[in-house]
Design a protein that fits this description.
single chain, 8 strands, eight-stranded mixed beta sheet
Amino acid sequence: MLKNLLAIAGGYELFGRALGGPQGRVKFVRDYVKATSADRVMDIGCGPGMMVPFLNGATYVGFDASAEYIESARKRYGDRGTFVCDRVSSATLDAPGSYDIVLACGVIHHLDDDEANTLFEIAKAALKPGGRLCTFDGAYVQGQSRLARLAISRDRGQYVRRAEEYPRLAKSVFPNTRMDLRSDFLRIPYTLAVMTCVKDPSQKARQ
């Protein structure tokens, strides 16, 4: 029943608000994304566009495969961003090397290792030299509370990993990757692995 509810844009947003999602997004943007109005941001797996209000007027392009999520995003935030109903890929990437920031919020734990590697490659291609990919995903950690482990085990994602596995995957594409563990983004006990992956300033976009 919960999975069916979350497939609906309104249900997804309502559930996120109940868990304290807006406060978590404020912290994520403040501490990691640090977007400004001068930045160009791509959001992979943007859902119904819930990151848009927190990005300080940055130029925004969101991708999601769910037509319902994209329709909801366009209705609410169509004047503040561009929303594409498609999986971002080398074919759908509109302007390689033009983005300052790429977001993948709660996406990687839905992907197997090969799919995650593809996401990292696409993010790298999208970013300007020195640009950064910012992600967060639920993670298992040693000494985690039973409540946190239970909550994470109920996630829809099939590839929730141990915390150290996320940067191991990212570093194959982004050697300059930092991970923090955060448990203060939601109202419930929930451990998130937050990554900042920086594209080498000397690397130019692939043509």
